[in-house]
Amino acid sequence: MRSLTANQDVLVISNAVKLFPVGKRSVWDRVIRKPQRFVHAVDDVSLHVAKAETLVLLGESGSGKTTLGRLVVGLETLTSGRIDLDGEGVRRLKDNGKLSGRLQMVFQDPTSSLDPFMKVVDCVAEPLRKSRIEKEKISARAMESLGNVGLGEKLAGKKPSELSQGQRQRVAVARAIVSKPEVIVLDEPTSSIDVSLQAQVLNLLVRLQKTQGFTYLLITHDPNVARYMADYIAVMYLGKVAEYGPAESVLGNPRHPYTQALLASAPKPDELSLPKPLSGEPPSMVSLPKGCRFAPRCPYVMERCKESQPPLFDKEGSLVACYLYDH
Predict the structure, then answer these.
(1) Is 135 among the domain residues?
(2) How far apart are CA 120 and CA 115, in angstroms?
(3) Is residue 46, in this structure, part of any structural domain at all?
(4) pLDDT digit string (tens) for 191-229?
(5) How far apart are CA 62 and CA 281, in angstroms?
(6) pLDDT confidence bin for 273, thresholds 50/70/90
(7) What order do you get walking across the sheet with 313-315 strand by strand?
(8) C-alpha distances in angstroms, 168 versus 73, 118, 140, 146, 263?
(9) Which one of 42, 114, 154, 320 has the lowest number of neighbouring Cβ atoms within 10 Å?
């Protein structure tokens, strides 16, 4: 098992912070020096991923997972912190320079990333248009990519609207791998497709990783997807990492109360009983608690939890942001 503080990684996220301003400040707000309010979407997150591994970001909606994924590929700009791909800093997508094509993203809804007026083969080839690859080779690369995801030549000339949702998601994967990226961010890649097709897409992603050595940052709210795909898991809650470690440790012996509740709320394929939902509502991302962000919902809350945010404690190879492990 490699160390969670290793520095020989393809992707390194260091103290990443992303704040979104709430509304616009008026002239009067500036005169009276009314402070600007922010949504703390990602707050001091440090993670890393080695080549051909899968790091899963697991958590409820609003935990900051997708924002972090968009920061990794340059669709959002860091407020502070740093993200490196092979030691080179990731900037905004249009400024990525040499990193162009080496970072790709598969979105939750494939329709949002596929031009409805373009042919499927042209949609797949799009990431190569600004590359130095000869034009006559671009189409061949796109066809090869379509073949790698199990789609034949008959679909190449169709429009995305003529395909099933499952086929569109495969096209989105083909588009992501055509530039042979080093890291692919997968944002809930199976949530928009029928349950019967989800296993096929996950199996496809596993096969591509084994044959082509892709590194994945996979975003999901589903512990069952994490169980199938993850080498390492970072559980996120309201912009912060609650627990981070090897998949077998986080899923087999969850330590943070939020992780425990999240896993208990997930449906079990072999059980007929309904899962237990998480109790309580998360606080506002604008008005966060002074201390631990999970404190208002935590069954083990202590007075110190309400006063300060716990750091990540090392517990047998996993990192846990909980004062229960401050010993």
Answers:
(1) no
(2) 9
(3) yes
(4) 878 887 889 999 999 999 999 999 999 999 999 999 999
(5) 12
(6) low
(7) 103-106, 183-187, 215-220, 54-58, 232-237, 240-246, 318-320, 313-315
(8) 21, 13, 20, 11, 30
(9) 154
Q: Sign (positive/negative) of CA torsion 125, 129, 130, 136?
A: positive
275 confidence band (pLDDT: 50, 70, 90): low
pTM of the entire predicted model: 0.91
Q: Read off the CATH number of the domain in which 33 is found.
A: 3.40.50.300
Q: What is the residue range of 222's domain?
A: 11-102+181-325
**Residue 144 in tokens:** 């090869």
List the beta bridge partners of residue 19.
40
Q: Is residue 169 part of a domain?
A: no
pLDDT level of residue 1 (50, 70, 90 thresholds): very low
Report the candidate in 148, 234, 243, 164 with the shortest Cα–Cα distance to residue 196.
164
Task: Report the C-alpha gap between 134 and 241 in whole angstroms.
Answer: 43
Alpha-carbon span 275 to 118, nearest angstrom: 43
| Domain-located, residue 116 | no
User: Two tokens at 291?
Assistant: 């201390």
Pairing of strands 232-237, 54-58: parallel
Q: Which of 273, 278, 249 is nearest to 262 (CA)?
A: 278
Q: In the chain, how many domains are there?
A: 1
